[in-house]
Write a structure and sequence with these properties.
This protein is α+β, with helices and mostly antiparallel strands and 158 residues long.
Length: 158
């Protein structure tokens, strides 16, 4: 009799731990999107000549994206000086107009945990393209001022 109670208690503990693990696993890749408070500036035929003077293209593309997690762990919420620029996923880009000056960009993405990073960037007349990238060990925001290869294959957020 005492032995069966121990087994039941062990089974119950196992089930509770297993359910917590499954819940954490299912919620680990979900990042709630933030809506942009700044309007995007869509351009029909994107070229480097159409950018600059405050008009900046942000893209999330050009790094290894594993098939199993691509689209789930590659979503990123972006803010510039507390102004929401929205959520961007792998294979997407948006164009936004920003005033010249110093910006603190805040990026949030979720792998197993929610990861929040800040980056300081100076926006001037020559700032044209900013690359956003995520992988399991780091996240980057880098001014490249060059369009990614295959820009026409990416989805433009509007």
């Amino acid at each position: 009799m005492l032995h069966s109670k121990k087994i039941d208690l062990k089974n119950r503990n196992f089930i509770v731990i297993f359910m917590m693990f499954i819940t954490m696993l299912l919620n680990s890749c979900a990042l709630k999107p933030i809506l942009p408070t700044k309007n995007y500036s869509p351009i029909e035929n994107v070229s480097i000549e159409n950018l600059g003077n405050g008009k900046i293209l942000f893209y999330n593309y050009g790094y290894y994206c594993p098939t199993m997690t691509c689209g789930y762990t590659t979503k990123m919420n972006v803010k510039a000086n507390e102004i929401s620029l929205g959520q961007i996923n792998y294979g997407e880009y948006f164009i936004v107009e920003l005033d010249y000056g110093e910006y603190v960009f805040e990026t949030v993405y979720k792998d197993v945990l929610k990861i929040k990073r800040t980056h300081k960037v100076t926006i001037d007349k020559d700032t044209k393209v900013i690359k956003l990238s995520i992988n399991a060990f780091n996240e980057k925001l880098k001014v490249t001022n060059s369009l990614p290869a295959g820009i026409n294959q990416l989805y433009q957020l509007q």
